[in-house]
Design brief:
Chain B: Keywords: ATP-binding, Cell cycle, Cell division, Mitosis, Nucleotide-binding, Transferase, Ubl conjugation, Ubl conjugation pathway. Chain B: It holds the Pfam family UQ_con. Chain B: Its EC number is 2.3.2.23, 2.3.2.24. The complex is a heterodimer of chains A (about 260) and B (about 180). Chain A is of the alpha+beta class. Chain A has a single domain, classed as 3 helical TM bundles of succinate and fumarate reductases (Up-down Bundle). Chain B has a single domain, classed as Ubiquitin Conjugating Enzyme, CATH 3.10.110.10. By secondary structure, chain B is α+β, with helices and mostly antiparallel strands. Chain B has a 4-stranded antiparallel β-sheet with strand order 1-2-3-4. The longest helix of chain B is centred in the C-terminal third of the chain and has 20 residues. The chains are: A alpha+beta (about 260), B alpha+beta (about 180). At the A-B interface, helix 2, helix 6, helix 7 and helix 8 of A face helix 1, helix 2 and helix 3 of B.
């Protein structure tokens, strides 16, 4: 692998830009080797190792958090972490529940119709929906964490699920553009916002993505904000606000992981 | 699907040696299917100014043609593009280059194109038609701030000079090569 990477840098007359791309790819490959797309379950306490002893804000917040939360799954920091974390945790929450799976499948089909009406070609959308539904249905009748982990660690299925989740957000935002336009100051239209900030893989997620996804799927999610602000507790924030979620995501600036309540 | 499932089976303990396999996003069969659908849709689209077709039997390499947009200095000119589709398409963008020499602020001397949707703004919902139309519109509407050809970028301010230089170059490097 390393030899290959060196060779990639050995262009003679390619432009510098291409070298940068190759370098980025090498870095991404390195990350891919070190961090699975979705990690095995690890203890929340083990996050303490990431912070120095002097880092009292983070450390005390993690210790405080461990009263209610005990386990974590880390996600790869590739810009898809929110979507991948949410997708995994949501599939996990509904696997073995055929009615819930059926509800999500029907919703996925309806979202494809919405996307067609918004001008998306079926063939650019259906492959992602098909993989999303196929993988979901493999889990309809059984709670199989091993299989779930395989699905989300294989880029062939995992990335397709991420794309479809992105499309769900895009469809929802475009359908409800009148409401959401006020939040996207720098873009002329919701279509433009979605093609720049939602649909491209590796593009990071913000509040607006989370609101759209939880609304579109009618699912409640709690985001636990763990940052350096000077308060003792990590701040939970539920989407929608008045809901009572059982899916929790841990946010540290720039990154989302899965966290489990006791 | 069966191809990707097999990949998982050998991979559950995440052995390092499998990572190169893992970067192949989808098995070749479904990428072929997608490309065939794109070809059909492109042929049915009736777009006049752009076209593309696989290069021989290789469905993963296409030759595209774009006409210079009407009302721009490129009007009346025709350019050929090469589109290379990676196995990870459409999660990964295709590599798109000018095959014909193209004098343009955002095209370098090797035909490489600086266009955001082919890079960080790529999305899996784009298709060959949207790529061709974007490259075509880039011709008449360059992004001077991120120029690859600085001579062309400087000259762009003076459209009549630009056009003269462009046509001279086109006659020498593109038109003459055609025959």
């Amino acid at each position: 692998m390393n030899e290959q990477t060196t060779q990639e840098f050995d262009f003679k007359d390619e432009m510098i830009d291409e070298k940068i791309t190759a370098q980025q790819e090498a870095i991404e490959n390195e990350i891919a080797r070190e961090q699975k797309l979705i990690s095995d379950l690890i203890k929340l306490d083990s996050l303490l190792d990431e912070y120095s002893l002097e880092d009292t804000i983070y450390r005390s917040k993690i210790i405080e958090l461990s009263a209610n939360f005990s386990l974590v799954r880390k996600t790869r920091g590739d810009g898809n972490c929110f979507f991948r974390a949410f997708g995994f945790r949501y599939f996990e929450a509904i696997m073995g529940k055929p009615d819930e799976v059926k509800r999500l499948k029907d919703l996925a089909n309806k979202i494809c119709t919405d996307l067609n009406q918004l001008g998306y070609n079926s063939f650019t959308v259906d492959d992602f929906k098909d993989v999303f539904v196929e993988e979901l249905e493999r889990l309809a009748d059984k709670s199989d964490v091993k299989l779930l982990e395989e699905i989300f660690n294989n880029p062939g299925s995992s990335d397709y699920i991420v794309v479809f989740l992105r499309l769900i957000v895009s469809a929802y935002l475009q359908k409800n553009a009148d409401f959401f336009l006020a939040f996207i100051e720098t873009y002329q239209s919701m279509k433009e916002f979605c093609s720049h900030e939602v649909e491209p893989m590796y593009k990071e997620s913000d509040h607006i993505h989370i609101i759209a996804l939880t609304n579109a799927l009618n699912v409640s999610v709690g985001i636990i904000y763990l940052d350096r602000t000077d308060q003792t507790e990590a701040t939970p924030h539920n989407f929608p606000e008045d809901s009572n979620p059982n899916i929790f995501i841990l946010y540290r600036p720039g990154h989302y992981d899965i966290i489990y309540k006791n | 699907m069966s191809g990707s499932e097999q990949q998982v089976a050998t991979n559950s303990s995440s052995g390092k040696k499998n990572d190169s396999v893992q970067t192949v996003t989808k098995d070749k069969h479904s990428v072929s299917k997608r490309l065939q659908q794109e070809l059909m849709s492109l042929m049915m689209s009736g777009e006049k100014g752009v076209s593309a077709f696989p290069d021989g039997d290789n469905l993963f390499k296409w030759i595209g043609t774009i006409q210079g947009p009407i009302g721009t200095v490129y009007e009346g000119l025709e350019y050929r593009l090469i589109l290379d589709f990676p196995n990870g398409y459409p999660i990964v963008a295709p590599k798109v280059k000018f095959e014909s020499s193209c004098f343009h602020p955002n095209v370098d001397e090797n035909g490489n194109i600086c266009l955001d949707i082919l890079r960080e703004k790529w999305s899996a919902t784009y298709d060959v038609l949207s790529i061709l139309l974007s490259v075509q519109s880039l011709l008449g509407d360059p992004n001077i701030a991120s120029a690859l050809n600085h001579h062309a970028a400087d000259l762009w301010k003076n459209q009549s000079l630009f056009k003269k230089y462009l046509l001279d170059k086109y006659d020498k490097e593109v038109r003459n090569k055609k025959f």
